[in-house]
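Troubleshooting entry. Yesterday's outputs looked truncated, so today I'm pasting the complete records for two proteins to confirm everything comes through intact. If either block looks cut off, that's the bug. Protein one:
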Amino acid sequence: MRTFPVYAPKLIVKHVRIFLKGAIWVADLGRLEFDNGKFVLPRSSLPKVKQAILELNGLLTTQTHQTKTV
């Protein structure tokens, strides 16, 4: 499990694109799990965690589309 001491979306997305499945720990957000290159939204989570997961998944999809078009 990789630990990120600060919320750095680009670094987190880079890690997820490389490993595709696993878990990370982000300061102030806690443990975030990902599978098949996408973050899994837990059933019960704080609003800031949900917002961060939606943002990260959005970055993942935009980067995936950019690499396919280039």
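Protein two, checking that the full record survives here as well:
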Amino acid sequence: MNVKISIELSEQQLEFAERLVSRGDYASISELVQDQIRDLMLEVEEPEGEADAVTAMAEEIRHRASLPDDQWITVDEADTMFQDLRRQAREKIKAGL
């Protein structure tokens, strides 16, 4: 549920907000304010969530780094694999697929 309120802006702030709306960044000044408050809420209220994401990523990197060598693709294999994929794609394009 949205609640209608009144806010005060300086002339400079209002002109800036109106420019953002006129160039299409936001549909209205209300949308601009809502978007910015939403961003602030994510920054202020959920720093633990960001830390959890970074921790999860670090754990995944550690897990992948601990995989046995036979589960890794070497640089040479990767180059060959991409060359093969490019060749196959070109062949399909020429064949009209």
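Both blocks look complete. Sanity check on protein two: The chain has a mean pLDDT of 84.
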